[in-house]
Design goal:
This protein has no helices and seven strands. Strand 5 (34-41) and strand 6 (44-52) form a beta hairpin. With 73 residues, the chain is mainly beta.
Length: 73
């Protein structure tokens, strides 16, 4: 991902391989909260840092069907 022509590096998830040798047993997670720190010098972006909350995870190991609703309350 890029912001103001600067690359942004960071992890968006993780794989739990602990104690498992078969890749089909791995568990896959995405981070639910990703924070961006953007540093400026006057009107120029000079640095971008990405931080995640390692405890806010969504398990995406199994196939799931998501339904989009246009009605948001």
């Amino acid at each position: 991902m890029y912001y103001d022509d600067l690359p942004i590096w960071g992890f968006i998830g993780k794989v739990d391989k602990e104690g498992k040798t078969d890749p089909s047993e791995y568990k896959y997670f995405l981070y639910k909260h990703i924070n961006f720190d953007i540093l400026y010098n006057k009107d120029r972006v000079i640095e971008i840092n990405v931080h995640t909350d390692p405890h806010a995870l969504a398990d995406v190991t199994e196939d799931r069907t998501w339904m989009w609703s246009s009605c948001i309350q």
